[in-house]
Amino acid sequence: MSLDSYIEKVVWSQDEIQERVKQLAYEITNDFNANSEPPPLVVGVATGAFLFLADLVRNVNIPLSVDIVRAQSYGSGTLSSGAPQISLDLKLDVKGKHVILVEDIVDTGNTLSCLIAHLESKGASSVSVCTFLDKPARRKVNFELVGKGKFYRGFECPDYFVVGYGMDFAELYRNLPYIGVLKPEHY
């Protein structure tokens, strides 16, 4: 059975994704000019954001550093546990830096709120968020950005359970080049 046969419908195609990622990178490039001191630190939230993170930073045209943090709130289900945990912390020091937190999807806001507070406690001078998908219909926690942080959103996602482009169900489907709705019989 092909991977595509597990998908009920495609929400965003590979071409639509690549175009939107380039637009986000252009916004970030303009907001953080090449003379920003220190250069911004882009922090990807593993594992879901890895493809988005790679595509995004390859299109940002200013000096920057990249690191990864791992926060978990889903396990193998389709609903957030509501109690995110940081299971892998940053290698780089964020003190006094402009941090751009890169997420695959923001839905309840629990994980994002936890990560922003974590970065602020480590001394980040500002925290921006760049999320590939934003699902405001599921928001339970209002998060506040730090300093002059901005919120960058790729697409507003309807209240579907989506996979692909790094996002998974039970660690599967991350390798789809598009965003699709998983057929209910597969979760």
Q: What would your notes on this structure say?
A:
The chain is α/β, with parallel strands linked by helices and 187 residues long. It has a domain at 15-31 and 38-67 and 93-158: Rossmann fold, CATH 3.40.50.2020. 21% of the residues lie in helices and 29% in strands. The chain has helices at 14-31, 50-59, 110-121; strands spanning 7-12, 41-46, 65-72, 85-88, 98-106, 126-134, 151-156, 162-163, 179-182. α2 links the parallel β2 and β3 (65-72). α1 (14-31) crosses α2. Its main location: cytoplasm. It catalyses: IMP + diphosphate = hypoxanthine + 5-phospho-alpha-D-ribose 1-diphosphate. This is Hypoxanthine phosphoribosyltransferase. Residues 13-169 form the Phosphoribosyltransferase domain.
Describe the protein's topology.
Blueprint (H helix, E strand, L loop, with lengths): L6 E6 L1 H18 L9 E6 L3 H10 L5 E8 L12 E4 L9 E9 L3 H12 L4 E9 L16 E6 L5 E2 L15 E4 L5
Parallel strand pairs: 2-3, 2-5, 5-6, 6-7
Antiparallel strand pairs: 1-9, 3-4, 8-9
Helix pairs in contact: 1-2
Element order, helices and strands?
EHEHEEEHEEEE
Strand order of the largest sheet: 4-3-2-5-6-7
Round the mean pLDDT to the nearest integer and report it. Answer: 89
Shape estimate: globular
- What is the strand content? 25-35%
Regions with pLDDT < 50 over 5+ consecutive residues? none
Helix content: 10-25%
Q: Give Rg in angstroms.
A: 16 Å
**Major beta sheet summary:** 6 strands, mixed
| CATH uppermost class of one domain | Alpha Beta
Structural class: alpha/beta
For this structure, the CATH topology of one domain is Rossmann fold
- Helix count equals 3
Total strand segments:
9
**How far is the N terminus from the C terminus?**
16 Å
What is the CATH architecture descriptor of one domain? 3-Layer(aba) Sandwich
Main location: cytoplasm
Keywords: Cytoplasm, Glycosyltransferase, Magnesium, Metal-binding, Nucleotide-binding, Purine salvage, Transferase
Pfam families: Pribosyltran
Cofactor: Mg(2+)
